[in-house]
Amino acid sequence: MGNIYLIGFMGCGKSTVSRYLCKQYGFKCLEMDEEIERQEGRSIKEIFTVSGESYFREVETGLLKKFCSSERLVVSCGGGTALKDENVSEMKRNGIVILLDACPETVYNRVKHNHNRPLLEGNMNVDYICRLMEQRRPKYEAAADFTVITDGKSTQQICREILDTIEEREKNR
Description:
Blueprint: E1 3-7, H1 14-25, E2 28-31, H2 32-40, H3 44-51, H4 53-67, E3 73-76, H5 85-93, E4 95-101, H6 104-111, H7 126-143, E5 146-149, H8 155-171
Parallel strand pairs: 1-3, 1-4, 2-3, 4-5
């Protein structure tokens, strides 16, 4: 099995699920946003403010390429990673791409107290989240090998669903 790439909108559970998979099943973990903050020495919000979103997206692509050849790596991608075709090609080359999805109300409840979400700054409401999610949905769905809905499920349930689906896919190859 190659790497597992978790994609989806912010607040859908990518970071939580990736950490659990790594802890429980011995995978290595890459939280892209955290790694970018570490490498850049500044927050995502500051990167967006000072250098712009396009700069951030280039750093994101470089990071993905750097780690793409690793094995047994769970990558928690930033919410915009799968919007770029080059990134999707990198992910598919060495792994499986899983879309974690949740309804806008769930996302809002998960992120409403987080002020390190530049795209939601000044727009922290369900209507805006819904519109942004719908704009991104076609790219997310095109990139994903399969989708896991995270609403109302425990982290353990989500991880079990991911691993069961991967195992089933491997058997049918």
